[in-house]
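Handoff note, outgoing to incoming analyst
You'll be picking up this chain. Sequence as last confirmed:
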Amino acid sequence: MSGQGNKDTQEAHLLAEAAVVPLAHEPRQETTNSTTGFARNVGSLVENVFQAGERREASDADVFDAANFKQVKNSWWLDRALPGEVKRYFFAAYIICTVVWLLGLSARIAALGFDNLGHTLWDFVRDRQWQLQPLLLFLHFLSLRLFKGIYSRNFDKAFAHLDVRADELARYKRWFLGTRVNFFALAIAAPFVIYEALYFFGSTDFYARIFGEDSPYLKLIDVTVRNMEAWLLLAIWSFEWLMYGYYCFLMLAGAIVVRAILRKYDFVDTVDLVLTERQYRPLFNVTAQAGSLVFVYGIIHAGYVFYTKGSVSDFAGLIGLVVLLATAFGVTWSSVRNELRGNVNAAIEGLEASYRDARTRLGTMKDVPGIEDDLQRVQVQLKMSLALQQMEYLQTKYESLGRKEFLGLVFKMLAPVGTVLARVIRWGSLIAALGLGGAAALSGSDKLAGSNGATNAPVDSPANAAK
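Most recent structure output, in case you need it:
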């Protein structure tokens, strides 16, 4: 009786885990109103679109998560001058970019006067430099806060599997959030600013390069003198190069700090567990998220360069950012490999010694009849086989270290574009469904009206027909 009860209990538990619910076969009901069914389908489709839009990735994987825009305690001059709250930060960046655009417009009007104000406004709006310059400046503001948020939020997580103390991590974190970052940003931006200044003062085709050779603005000003608008553009470029210096220093300093910590501290767990669970993966997450941001930044900046026919410094800055990203990943990859190389070699040497001992023992065993001798021989052979498999597994895991992380870096770089394309396809399918469904509903209503007209037509009786 107890056995039957246990069997029933197990069957009930399995059914509960499988969540098997019998479906009731209800009779299908035909509806005469096709519009009602269409509205119900479209309503569910719209609901699915909005629900899909509300799905969010984990904050660790989403580069553009709102938490990355929050201000953390730091000594950055530019960041501390701006609001810490996310919405206020966006609003302040928008106001600054708008004010810059209005200052450019004011400088243009001051140079040309108010005689033909409408034509001056129209030429300024059509100017390619001023069409994209506020957008590029806004992109720099977003990247300034995002780079800092990515590195500050993921710093502690990156070294969670190492035996480094919290106070030591705080000391290393000051490389990202301390005062020195301002001086390094100035040092990195200095060559680009000097190049812009030399071109500003020494070039004879400065206005032609900035506004285009066929721009009517060049015929209305003295191209040998730098006016207020030109000085404003030089100030904007210098400011953007300074923020560019922050990005470069963060990526370079991040790789150097990772290398310094890995050379000084070890993983807590054994090397086989580190390789199996890929505990080194958090070390690559910062570079992968920075790659997503560099990819988006590069697309917008490349569009600006080609649309405005930018200078050599613009191309050099874009290429330099990509080179620094690759360098940061390469330094992290080599640091992790160097950290684990000694442990992997030690583990393989131990397995080789175990294999040799087992092989020596197998060679010295005498062929004695009996089950005990056979069991010992099988145990020794299993030990040899296991040692060989473990050596191959460790070597394979170690050699493949970084490949998945590199592919992850590429996919994370393409993730923002993929998200935009997915939303475009989703909304495109919704619009197509609305159009096709509307056409089907209209054709259905026309057929229904035609059938009703045929039904309601008067039918002549035999008596009337005889008349």
